[in-house]
Amino acid sequence: MVLRIEDTDRERSTPENVEQILDALRWLELDWDEGPLSQAERADRHREALEQLLEKGVAYRDPATGEDVAAWKKEHGNRGYRGTPSDDPGGAVRLKVPDEGDTVVADEIRGEVRFPNESSDDFVIARGDGSVLYNFAVAVDDADMGITHVIRGDDHLSNTPKQLQVMEALGEAPPRYAHLPLLHGPDGKKLSKRHGAASVQELRDSGYLPAAVRNYLALLGWGTQDDTTIMSTEELIERFDVADVGRASAIFDEQKLRWLNGRFMREMDLDAYTEAVARHLGREPDERLRAACKIAQEKAQTLEEVWPLIGFLFEEPEIDEKAWKKVMKDGALPLLNEALEALRGAETFEPVELESSLGRILAEHDVKPGKLYQPIRVAITGTSVSPGIFESLAALGKERSIRRIERAVDRLSTESRQQTG
After folding, report:
1. Looking at 96, 193, 326, 368, which residue is catalytic?
2. Per the omega criterion (within 30 degrees of 0), is the bond before 98 cis?
3. Fewest CB within 10 A of the end CB: N or C in the chain?
4. Is 193 a catalytic residue?
5. Each residue of 131-150: pLDDT tens digit?
6. 27-74 per-position pLDDT tens digit
């Protein structure tokens, strides 16, 4: 894999843009064998190849302006523009395109795609100042670097006949091409910011795992014969065949990515999971965080979702008033008082014992679990969403659990007195 930065457009290829590419590849753990190579730094080689084509007579300088070409096309209809060779050193350089026949792209995904030469212009390969254009630089670089396969988006398909024509003019054998379908959102429209994350970095910041993103991206437009969904990178390498990629636009659905990421997170061993969470949070992967991760691993689908689930173990939670109003009613106060008695009498404060002692309260009053467990959950975490209630109590510890439930009971008692008063 050759990493080449195609930076002939100096305005777009800023150091910041290049670093974003490198940063994304590093995070995705997609390594390269050669590079990164700068196309712009090969300008001398490009000029050398340009002079070679001018000397062979397969390219020529043309003084025509854009307005001249537009006027010619208006007069000649759909025919490709053919310029007038000139000795003017300030003219743009055009490559001669045959008047007859087709330029055929033997695409690995789409099969043969034919481009009639008659309707193709003698296209510009270098500006009047001698700087070469993208399609010429790419073809020269592909030839020099021994590129065997070019796999890219199908928005580049229209560039390929031009690159093939440059290759032919240089006397070089072309690489094999495969043009992948572009990504669309679930609504069938071209992928954009409204569909969710718009860059690899945004996926990283949202708490996705590199392995899950690699897996999901590989499945866009491609799949196995047995519809296997979760695959290691090694398995993807073994099973992937570009010939099996479909032609239709692939659908990028961040909800499916979240589901897949959640599967990857749940299958990590606890130490690796804790390390990943620690990196994302900027914390140390100590035993306290490890214990917190242990109770959240089955619940979170992204690394970003972990802290809201475990934050109550590290700092006093803020009460979600909507959650409070929803669950702190219908007999919550007497049930919480009984729960306090049971928790104060617990000897080991392990999940199994807590489930047993609190379960007796449910049986005695014949109430559904949510009537007791949701008020406890809001009391100790501040919200109605958390890891398992028994695991949460055990991780928080007896002293802090009791203190937070006592605080909730005091508030409930005050509210009750206010209502009756």
Report:
1. 193
2. no
3. C
4. yes
5. 999 999 999 999 999 999 99
6. 999 999 999 999 999 999 999 999 999 999 999 999 999 899 999 989
